[in-house]
Write a structure and sequence with these properties.
GO cellular component, one term: cytoplasm
CATH superfamily of the largest domain: NADP-dependent oxidoreductase domain
Pfam families: Aldo_ket_red
Distance between the termini: 25 Å
Number of domains: 2
Order of helices and strands: HEHEEEHEHEHEHEH
CATH class of the largest domain: Alpha Beta
InterPro entries: Aldo-Keto_reductase (IPR050791), NAD(P)_OxRdtase_dom_sf (IPR036812), NADP_OxRdtase_dom (IPR023210)
Keywords: Oxidoreductase
Protein name: Aldo/keto reductase
Helix content: 25-40%
Number of helices: 7
Length: 204
């Protein structure tokens, strides 16, 4: 997720088509591009009637495959404020900590997020790539609305996190649900199941 899309017009049309098909949650991050995704979402969908715009912060990008988590409270505040500016909103519907940064204690990061929520900059708070133990630590500072972990039919390492979220009424947002396309190709493991159901592998 690096740089501008090769066809900006097509990217904007895809976003609008998704909403026309009934999508109401748009999930992004300031590190996608970086910044490109949020700019595209605003250009295509603002003022977001009937939509929930979710974004993430806490990563820095120094190259196409470089993702460096930073949990410094000042940096997290900058992430929130700049996402608000790019998206054109006075408050972020759902802001997710992209990763718990290794540079300061998790509680320091959670306290900073709690303060921004109390200030009205963030409506709901989510976490990404966290353990059950980390969710419980975060819940001492704010209600955790969502957790976004890698999860699909071939990667179920977050099964315990999913179970915890279900038990505690926390939304679970799987990332890479199609295993980066590995589950959706024509001759993949789901092909026979999809044929029997009269569906596509992506729908299965």
């Amino acid at each position: 997720i690096w740089g501008d899309p090769p066809d900006r017009a097509r990217a904007l049309a895809t976003l609008r088509r998704a909403v026309a098909c009934g999508v109401t949650l748009i999930d992004t991050a300031d590190s996608y591009g970086p910044y490109v995704s949020e700019d595209l979402i605003r250009a295509a969908l603002y003022p977001y009637d009937g939509l929930v715009i979710a974004t993430k912060g806490g990563h820095t990008r120094h190259g196409p495959n470089v993702w460096r988590p930073v949990g410094n409270p000042d940096y997290l505040r900058q992430c929130v404020l700049m996402s608000m500016r790019r998206l054109g909103v006075a408050r972020i519907d759902l802001w997710q900590l992209h990763r718990v940064g290794p540079d300061c204690p998790p509680e320091t990061q959670f306290q900073a997020i709690a303060e921004m929520r109390q200030e009205g900059l963030i409506r709901h708070v989510g976490l990404s790539e966290v353990s059950v133990e980390m969710i419980e630590r975060a819940r001492r500072f704010f209600p955790v609305a969502t957790v976004q972990n890698r999860y699909n039919l071939v990667n179920r390492l977050s099964e315990d996190v999913l179970d915890y979220c279900v038990a505690h009424d926390i939304g679970f947002i799987p990332w890479a649900p199609l295993a980066a396309g590995g589950l959706a190709h024509a001759h993949g493991a789901l092909t026979r199941v999809a044929q029997d159901l009269g569906a596509t592998t992506g729908q299965v």
